[in-house]
Amino acid sequence: MVEAGMETSQSNEPCMSDTPVAAPSVTAGDAACDLVTVPTRQGLEAVDILRRGAGEAVGPVLHDDGCDTLGFLVPAGTAACWDVPGSTCTETNGQGLRLAPQPPVEGSDWLLPPGGADLATDPVVLRRALGEAARLIKAADSCR
Fold it and tell me: Is the entire prediction scored with pTM above 0.85?
């Protein structure tokens, strides 16, 4: 789900505060976003956690046709500080990935399309949801 001209970040430097970052306040189709990619199982758990949370809305989410990964649209600039193990944040550098009705990456489709979701998922909230999802999956797998 990475397009040419994009850079990825897996920094180990924690540089995101617990203060939620506001999603871009522009109309769909005009907002450049970064993309956080995670394994499907963890991503689906995180979507459930975010949708159950009080006031913690989830933005558009992509899934690939092979069902291997989910991609959460987050505000542009998130990739510079993203450091969540097991995930990758792709920086679009203002090109390529935009909120539009059609999926921005060939071979993908919307799990949660733009318009039916917030403009972008707050990266701080997503970080917490991904952490909780990883803990739930680990606990479930240890019970087998």
Answer: no
Distance CA 114, CA 34 (A): 14
Q: Report the DSSP beta bridge partners of residue 55.
A: none
- Residue identified by tokens 């769909």 is 28
Mind giving me the DSSP string for 72-103? EEEETTGGGG---TT-EEEE-TTSS-B--SS-
A 10 A CB-CB count for 81 gives 16
Nearby residues of 90 by Cβ (< 8 Å), 6 or more positions away: 1, 2, 6, 7, 8, 34, 35, 36, 37, 79, 97
What's the CA gap between 50 and 63, in Å, rounded?
Answer: 17
Per residue in 102-114, pLDDT (tens digit) is 665 677 888 888 8
Token representation of residue 7: 């850079």
| Token pair belonging to 69 | 């990964």
Do residues 31 and 99 make contact, with C-beta atoms less than 8 angstroms apart?
A: yes
